[in-house]
Amino acid sequence: MSDIGSGDEGSSSQKYQGMEQGSEYDSGQQGQMEQELATKMLQIQSKRFYLDVKQNRRGRFIKVAEIGADGRRSQIFLALSTAAEFRDHLSTFSDYYSSLGPPNPDNVPEDGKLKSEMMIKDNRRYYLDLKENSRGRFLRVSQTITRGGPRSQVAIPAQGMIEFRDALTDLLDEFSTDEHAYKPDLPEGRHMHVDNKHFYFDIGQNNRGVYMRISEVKTNFRTAITLPEKSWARFRDILSDYCEKIKQPAGGNGPPGTTLGGQDQPHPLVGNNTQQDGGTSLK
């Protein structure tokens, strides 16, 4: 018998559109502030599962979405710490599933439950039920909110629990180490116009940390550099040093800009670009 899931796990999937708007892990009206960091897609028998690592003003979380063969969508949200606990439960449930004999349609438990666990995170509860029905065995994961609201749930075919666990582990290994380093209030971007060029300063964040992207834009030209946060102070000091030396050239001889750091020759990376571009290029 194929473990293709249950007929009862899809009954509430039509309610899930409202689930995202009420979830503290999803941005709701703050949709523009939400950033997707990574995604994985799993095809387990007749179902597709998407595991998306996202972050918003509250922090990072994982959205698990199940797409059934009929196109219906179900989803739950997990904080990274809850996802790690869920990953460990998947190993336990998989070991238990492996110890079971073949499904016996004449000996199905009355409520269908073979093994159950519960996880609690803040105002959310997650119920994990390894179940069996006439279609096979599956792990149903239900999410409830103590303040009310619809119950959301996904159902993972039992044979796919290990594959699901491994995909979840990969995402946690990449993103959970610096979960608490997330900075929700980043500075707004800035813009500067010099001659026929535009410079844009944008602050972002990824799994490596906070960074600044400086983009130089002309009519048919665009280039950018990315500076990790740890380099900003040094980058500022170098620019400040050049600004001071341009204003007060060493030795006091010659026109401003002919001497950098006491040397009479231009930097080899600058060449003639300074004269052609009026000294505005950051390259």
Count of β-strands: 12
* Alpha carbon gyration radius: 28 Å
Overall pLDDT level = 77
Shape: elongated
Question: Helices and strands: which structural class?
Answer: alpha+beta
- What share of the residues lie within helices? 10-25%
Largest sheet: 4 strands, antiparallel
What is the spatial order of strands in the main beta sheet?
Answer: 1-2-3-4
Described by its quaternary structure, the protein is single chain
Structural features:
single chain; 283 residues; alpha+beta; four-stranded antiparallel β-sheet; 5 helices; 22% helix; disordered C terminus
Task: Please characterize this protein's 3D structure.
The chain is of the alpha+beta class and 283 residues long. 22% of the residues lie in helices and 37% in strands. It contains five helices and twelve strands. The strands form three sheets. A four-stranded antiparallel β-sheet has the order 1-2-3-4. The chain has a four-stranded antiparallel β-sheet with strand order 5-6-7-8, covered by helices on one side. Helix 2 packs antiparallel against helix 3. The termini are far apart. Mean pLDDT is 77; it is low at 6-24, 26-32 and 254-283.
